[in-house]
Structure formats: structure tokens, C-alpha cells
Design brief:
The chain is mainly beta. The protein has one domain: Lipocalin (Beta Barrel). The chain has helices at about 1-15, 25-35; strands spanning about 40-45, 60-75, 75-90, 90-100, 105-110, 115-125, 130-135, 150-155. It has an 8-stranded antiparallel β-barrel with strand order 1-2-3-4-5-6-7-8.
């Protein structure tokens, strides 16, 4: 009987979902993501307001974006951890998740009470700077008009010697 239980346990383990943080797909994701990793300081950015939602018309200002290479499993996906620091409307640091693609990095994980944001899209604006856009989450009922965007530029924080 113990042999049968061991065999069933081995089969169940072998048939279970593979570790999403290993294998070819993750190696590819990591290769695209690693160049975006680091501490980014927002140099300038737009203010976004929602005329149809006055409670969300506060000016906000991003301070820092830190993209770490520590992995976290969300459902069946493996992504990286990070954090975003806001300077306004309230000083707050949020834990976020992110991943890189050849043309951009996507940062997500903002709480609903902050606003109808789906996250941030980051793209290269030079060898040591990123251009970003705030992504609006239509599922939260706010309709973004064409051309309505909040863009920002961030530079890499130089490492200490």
C-alpha cells in the first residue's frame, strides 16, 4: 500500500503545473525584462484629470519606479516585483508587479482606491532614460477620451561606487 501512495504522489506531482519561473518562456521573459530593471527617478510628468469623475481629479506625481528582478508567481504567470513611489496626491509607495517585452515594460498592481489605473507602460527614451504612460483601466468605468494620457520621463538612478 505505501508503494501505491508514493507512486500516486509522484504521478500527481509530475502532472501538476510546471514552475512558471523556469523553462524557455521564462528565460525569454527574463531576457526582455532585465534591461528595464533598476531604480528610475521621474524627472517630469503630466497631470491627469477625469472631468467625469471629480473625486479622481487630484494632481498626482510619480517619484520613483524601482523594478526588481525578484520573481513572484501570479496565477500561472511569473513576473517580477517592484515598487512605485508617489509624491502627490499622497506620499505613498506601492508594491507592483512588472514584466518586460522587446518594445516596453508593463507595470501593474495599483490599488483601486488610487484611481482607474491599469498600470504603467515604459519604453526606452535613450540609453539611460524611459518614457512612460499611465494606462487607464476601462473596467473601472472611466472612459479615457482619445488623446487623454499622462506621460512622464524617468532617468536611471546612478549606482553608488
Amino acid at each position: 500500500m505505501p508503494r501505491v501512495l508514493v507512486a500516486v504522489a509522484l504521478v500527481a506531482t509530475a502532472c501538476g503545473p510546471p514552475n512558471p519561473c523556469s523553462g524557455h518562456q521564462f528565460d525569454r521573459l527574463k531576457r526582455y525584462s532585465v534591461p528595464y530593471a533598476g531604480h528610475w527617478v521621474v524627472a517630469r510628468g503630466d497631470t491627469i484629470t477625469f472631468p467625469d469623475a471629480p473625486q479622481m481629479s487630484d494632481r498626482f506625481r510619480l517619484g520613483d519606479i524601482v523594478l526588481d528582478t525578484t520573481t513572484v508567481v501570479l496565477g500561472r504567470e511569473c513576473v517580477f516585483r517592484g515598487r512605485i513611489t508617489f509624491r502627490a496626491p499622497r506620499h505613498d509607495t506601492l508594491a507592483v508587479n512588472w514584466f518586460g517585452q522587446p518594445e516596453q515594460a508593463i507595470v501593474s498592481g495599483w490599488p483601486v482606491d488610487l484611481g482607474p489605473f491599469a498600470g504603467v507602460s515604459l519604453a526606452w527614451a535613450g540609453t539611460d532614460s524611459l518614457s512612460g504612460s499611465i494606462l487607464i483601466d476601462a473596467k473601472l468605468g472611466v472612459q479615457a477620451r482619445p488623446g487623454m494620457t499622462a506621460r512622464f520621463v524617468a532617468g536611471r538612478l546612478a549606482s553608488a561606487p
